Each structure stands twice: as C-alpha cells, then as structure tokens.
Amino acid sequence: MEKNIISAMEVAKLANVSQSTVSRVFTPGASVSEKTRKKVLQVAEELNYQPNALARGLITKKTNMVGLAMKDIQNPFYHEVLGIFTKKLKAMGYSVLFVYTENEEIQQEEINHFLEYNVEGIIVTDALLSSKIVSKLKHNRIPVILFNRNDKSLQCHSVSCDNIDAAGSIAKYVFEKGYKEIVFITGKINTSTSQDRQKGFVDFLISKGIVVTILESDYTYEKSFELTKNLIQSGYKPDAIFGANDITALGALDALKDRKISVPDETIVIGFDNIKMAAWPNYSLSTWVQPVEEMVDETINLLTLNSNDDEPKAVKVKGHFIHRKTTK
Amino acid sequence: MEKNIISAMEVAKLANVSQSTVSRVFTPGASVSEKTRKKVLQVAEELNYQPNALARGLITKKTNMVGLAMKDIQNPFYHEVLGIFTKKLKAMGYSVLFVYTENEEIQQEEINHFLEYNVEGIIVTDALLSSKIVSKLKHNRIPVILFNRNDKSLQCHSVSCDNIDAAGSIAKYVFEKGYKEIVFITGKINTSTSQDRQKGFVDFLISKGIVVTILESDYTYEKSFELTKNLIQSGYKPDAIFGANDITALGALDALKDRKISVPDETIVIGFDNIKMAAWPNYSLSTWVQPVEEMVDETINLLTLNSNDDEPKAVKVKGHFIHRKTTK
DNA sequence: TATACTTTTGCATACGTATGCAAAAAAGGA
DNA sequence: TCCTTTTTTGCATACGTATGCAAAAGTATA
Asked: What InterPro entries does the entry give (chains A, B) (predicted)?
C-alpha cells in the first residue's frame, strides 16, 4: 500500500507553473503574483496538496519541532504543564516531539531521537540530564532548557519557581502563626525543587530557633501517606506540615484524616503547585501557586532566544500563597 | 548561529569509504564487511554523527513518527494512557508527535500538522473527528484509530472497553444488591463512552423495572459535585450512584461527604477507569478497571496492521470490576 | 592457476523542497 | 512608442539519505 504523497511538482504541472512557484506560494513573504497564487492554491486544494515538512526541514534546517521530555507523568502538575506547552508551541507554529522517560535521568537514546529529527530545542521537565549529554547538545547548537529544575553544574538554561524564596515565605507564615512542631515532607531528594524548598523552609525556621522534622519522601501520594501515618502512630503530633508538592501534601492530609486529626484545628497542611485537585472541596488545600503560564512563556522565550553561546540563564518566577481550608 | 549538521558524507571521507557504505552501516540488514563497519562506526562516534531522520524519511517514506491527539488532558486516565503509549511506541522505534487539542473536535489544522510530517498513523483519544478529515486521511492512506471512542459513522478503527457490557455488569451488581434509588451521572453526552455506559446501565435496570435518575454532567469533578449536591438538597436520597468515569464518581463521592451521607452504608458509589486516585485511602473508590495496557496494545496493533483498505475494526476489550470501600 | 560464485563496495539517482541567479514579463515614465 | 525599473517566473542546484545496478574484491572449487 504505497503512500502516494503528492508533491509540489504535480501541483506545478496542473497549474502550468514551475515547482519553484508552487514552493513560493507556500513560503510566506515570497514573491508571487496574485493571479498565479490563486491558481496554484486552487489546484493544491483539489489535489489535497500539503507541503512536506521533512523536505522543507532538510533544506531550511528549520524543522519547527521541539522536543519535550517528561518524567513524573503521575503528577497532575505536569499534565497542566504539558497542556500549556503544546498549546503555546502550536500557536507559534511548533510541533511537539514528546518523550516520556521512565528513568530518573534522560537517556542518551531518548536525546538521540530528538537529534535525529533535528528538533530546534529541547525542554526537559522534571528529569535529570547528564553533563555529557548537555555538552553534546551544546556542540550541536541545540538549546536545552530545564523546566522546574535548576542544576547549576549544567551549562543550560533553566526556568523555575523561586523555590527558596517561596518556601521561606511559607516558613514565615508558619512561624508567625506560632506553630512549633513543624514537619517538612521532601520530594525526591535528588531534585533541585525539593532541595530548594527544604532549604528555604528549614533555614528560615532554624534562624528562629525552630527545628523542623524532615520526612524523606519521593513526591508520591502513597509514600507521603505512609510516612505521615507512621509519624502520628509513633506519638508525634505536628502543628504544621509542609509538603514539597501538592500530591505530597494530599497524602499527608489523608493520613491525618485517617488518624482522626482535625485539619486545620489540630494540624495545618500546606502544599506546593496548586494543582486542580487542591481546590476540590474535600481537600481545599492551602498551597503555593506556581505561575505555570508565566513559566512556560519564559521557557519558550529562552528556547527561541537563539543566543546559546552566552552563559546559561536561570530564570526564577515568584508565584504566591493561596489560603484555603487546611490553614487558618 | 548555523547548525552544523554533520552528514554521512563527512564520515565517509574520513573513513575512506563512500557515502553509501556509511548509510549501509546504519541500515539494519545491509551488507557491510565487519572491518569497514567497525571503521565507520568509530569515525561516526568521533564526529558525533547521527543519521538524519528527515532525509531518511524523505526517501524511505517511513518517518517512524506517530501522531497522538488528546483532548481531556485533565483526566488522569489519559495521562496514564499517554505514558503507556509513548513507552510502547518508543520500544517499537516510533517517535510521538503530540497534539493537545482544546476543541471538542480535532481541527483540520492539527491534522495538517501530522500530515506535513508524514506520520505513519494517528491516534486520537477522547476527541471527535469529522468525517471529512477521516476521508482525507483515508485518501492519504494514513491509518487513524480512535482510542476510547467508537463512532460507527466514521470509517476508521477504534479501540475501547466494551462499555455497554461493563455498565450492564455494574447494573446487574447494583440490582442484585437490591438497590432501588439509582443515579447515573453522565460524562459529556456527545461521547460514545458516556452514551454506551449509560445505555448498558439503564437498559439492564429498565428490563428489571427500575427507573434510573440521570444527571447530565460533563466528566468534570466540579459539575458532578454540584449536581449531586443539588440532588441531595432537593430531597432525593439515592441508594447507588454510578458515574460515567472516576472523576465524575469522585465528585459525587465528595458531595455525599459534604452532605454527611455515609458511604457505602447509605449510598454506594461506583466509578469507571480505575485511575490511580481511586485507590487512595481517602477515596477507595469501587470502579471498573479499563485494561489500559491491553487497549494500547490493540491500538498499536491496528496501527501497524497496514491493511487499511478493508473495513474498519472496532476492537472491544472487557476489563473487570474492582470492589473497594464505596460498595459493600 | 583458472574459474565460478558470493560478498562487499561505489556510482548514480531519487525523495520533495527552498533559493540564488538570470531571464521574462509587467509596469512606469517620457 | 521605446527605454528603464520593478516584479514575477523558471532553471539549476542543494539538503542528507537509501538503493538498484554493476564493478570490484574476496572465497571456494577443481
């Protein structure tokens, strides 16, 4: 079943013009008279002609494709991110080559996929990248941008929330309310987001003489639920729990409910991300809003900047706290 | 900043062979002596050579790309689907060109994106497709498969759960438990999934002389929450609620909690999909398991079948009920 | 060593497009 | 009408790869 791709040549013949002219009709800004343009467009319509992006990419070295690699597909935050990325990139004429990586670190093989297709940039959310790969990409002049990650040892741009600052604000809030028994539940401990949120939170409280209990989790609901439940059962009763993200906080919240601890009266809970579920009545989780749209805009901006010889930029956005029913 | 793509020609020169030979080294099954293969691979490694998928696709008419179009990115069920699709397709050497469509119906423009890149097949989850587009794709000999949708009026394959049968089983369960005041909450009413689940459920119960109350919702948590809450406030007290999907059921569940109705003692709740959240302790939702892996396998199977001249196949898989704490 | 046979290689061409250059056509000016 | 200027068009070529065909190289047989 051969795929009968109809080419510009065929359109040209039927329209009594050259292939070049057909090409120009489909090239914005090229010089074609109105009369021939109309004629060509009509024939193209009849034949269902579609310019071939592969051939075009081959010659212009512009593929209009962007590689997007994601890891933690379980976290609703990233679904939102995915949606916004594809929406905005489409609006700019880019197509998205999507890779979902199961491994902690993006693999060479996955990057090769991107390279083979000559993507014009790579966006990595929520996954690690080896410096070897980064330098290979740099050598190939393909910009790569870490989204919601921030690795200073890597020579690439990054866009993230100012996690240290945000977590500091939350710490300040918790401190000023007078809470003393405070818990932080980490995400995956090798991620910059978790590290920064921990640092911002703990450092502020330490400066006030408060020691924070750390529960080492992994961004999953299940782990966070279990850790919190165990903590309560061990006899410790926290005033305040801050989770490294919303899913983490929800796990803690459900564990508290399970142990019949009233929220926010006995314990308050705060998350990070403001995923859709945080607003569900049953949860109504107080959380830090990451300005996703803004973060995506910044990322695309860096992508199209096309000045990858200068030093890597680490863009930080602010966001804000939103008070719901798990704080008072 | 020109992108200096290194070509097979450059590798050839350095390795003292022809470009053809380099090509053959990277073409599985081609005839190359072990000696030259090693030499070429070494040079290729040195130069960071990467075969160009665009050029290859141009000549072989095989792009190894599959178009994936999704709509309801808010539903966790589809995130799982997305993950499994990309994982399995990657394993088969396919790349995924991803489109997230906001519109109810996939737009011409979005399909054009796929066509321009010569994708080898298109998977549409959860969105509608005009028959005009389908016939255009058929004309271009690009197989298109509806995932979790089933439109008999369209000339294309589809893979879905046997929704009528599944909903019938659930109706049987509800009937045999002796419930009389039964509610079905729809999804988007113009989707085949919602229609079929409603049909299977209602038809069985009608045959037993039971009239089902229908709440017309749209697959969102919020709408379902509100409708259920209103229903209760109007004075109606259901024995059993079946939601067109899990998100719908969770909305109903939270509304019941909000109205202080005990689940499952006063009212039981059943969902459909078995998303990860259904297993969370706080919800522990009884639901119908859609065998996602199997559905994805069937889809990819149809995609690679490559016999799109015969009539469209509508593959149905079964799935099974999973009992948790919202039923007794 | 000569012959037949097999494997490996290079040459040439094709895929479908974009684009510099020069020729052709159209438009403007007198 | 003729000449100049501008716009539109076609020709030829390039992008980086795969592949049929024939030449070359290697291997086996007698």
From this structure: HTH_LacI, Lambda_DNA-bd_dom_sf, Peripla_BP_I, SBP_2_dom
Residue A227 has pLDDT above 50, yes or no: yes
Q: Do B118 and A221 make contact, defined as CB atoms within 8 angstroms?
A: no
Q: Could you tell me if B262 and B283 lie in one domain?
A: yes
CB contact (8 A) between residue A118 and residue B63: no
- Percent pLDDT > 90 in chain B is 80
C-alpha–C-alpha distance, residues B167 and B290, integer Å: 12
Over residues A89-114, mean pLDDT: 88
CB of B16 nearer than 7 A to strand D: no
Sign of CA dihedral B187, B192, B193, B197: positive
Residue at token pair 């640092």: A199
Beta bridge partners of A22: none
Would you place residue A1 in the very low, low, confident or very high pLDDT band (cuts 50, 70, 90)?
very low
Residue B220 CA to C14 C1' — how many Å?
53
Protein residues closer than 7 Å by CB to strand C: A 5, 7-9, 19-20, 23-24, 26-27, 30, 49-52, 55-56, 58-60; B 16-21, 24, 31-36, 55, 58-59
Q: Is residue B114 located within the same domain as residue B90?
A: yes
* Entry field: residues in chain A: 328
- B314: domain CATH number? 3.40.50.2300
* Structural domain range at position B116: 64-161+292-320
Residue B70 belongs to a domain: yes
Q: Give domain status of residue B279, yes or no.
A: yes
Check if residue A118 sits with its Cβ under 7 angstroms from strand D: no
- Measured between alpha carbons, how far is A92 from A94 in angstroms, rounded to an integer? 6
Interface list for A 194-233 with B (CB within 8 A)? 221, 225
**Is residue A168 in a domain?**
yes
User: Which residues on chain B are in Cβ contact (under 8 Å) with A282?
Assistant: 254, 257-258, 282
Q: Does the pTM of the predicted model rise above 0.70?
A: yes
Q: Give the pLDDT confidence of A137-189 residue by residue, as tens digits.
A: 888 889 999 999 988 888 889 999 999 999 999 999 999 999 999 999 999 99
Do residue B281 and residue A225 have CB atoms under 8 angstroms apart? yes
Establish if B73 belongs to a structural domain.
yes
Q: What would the two tokens of residue B171 be?
A: 């109706």
User: In which element (H, E) is residue A250 found?
Assistant: helix A246-258
Do B187 and B81 share a structural domain?
A: no
Residues 6+ apart with CB under 8 A from A301: none
A97·B100 Cβ contact <8 A: no
Decide if A245 contacts A306 (C-beta within 8 A). no
